[in-house]
Amino acid sequence: MPTRPAAVTNWQDRGLCREVDGDLFFPEKGGATKTPKTVCMACEVRVECLEYALANNEQFGVWGGLSERERYRLRNAA
């Protein structure tokens, strides 16, 4: 079984998202994102999660407290 690099494993293992249903972070198109964002805002690895999503061009779901549309705007504002 392949292993993930320690840096990736470290922040992902500490995410609050691991304590709730993962589907919460992938709402239907146009679905509410308030609940997953609330989880993200209380998470100690929110910044690392957002950096990962931006670096890997994650196009779906809530990552680091931002929706797909918010990450798109952030990438295009830079």
SSE layout and pairings?
Blueprint lengths: L5 H8 L20 H8 L4 H10 L12 H10 L1
Question: Would you kindly provide a brief summary of this structure?
Answer:
This protein is an all-alpha fold. It has a domain at 32-78.
Can you describe this structure?
It is built from 4 helices and no strands. It has helices at residues 6-13, 34-41, 46-55, 68-77. It starts with 5 loop residues before the first helix and ends with a helix.
Distance, first to last CA:
38 Å
Measured as a percent range, the helix fraction is 40-55%
- Largest sheet descriptor: none
What is the overall pLDDT average? 90
* Strand percent estimate: under 5%
Low-confidence stretches: none
Shape: globular
Class by alpha and beta content = mainly alpha
Task: Count the DSSP helices.
Answer: 4
Radius of gyration equals 13 Å
Count every beta strand, where a strand is a DSSP E run of 2 or more residues.
0
Helix-strand string: HHHH
Give the key terms:
78 residues; mainly alpha; 4 helices; globular
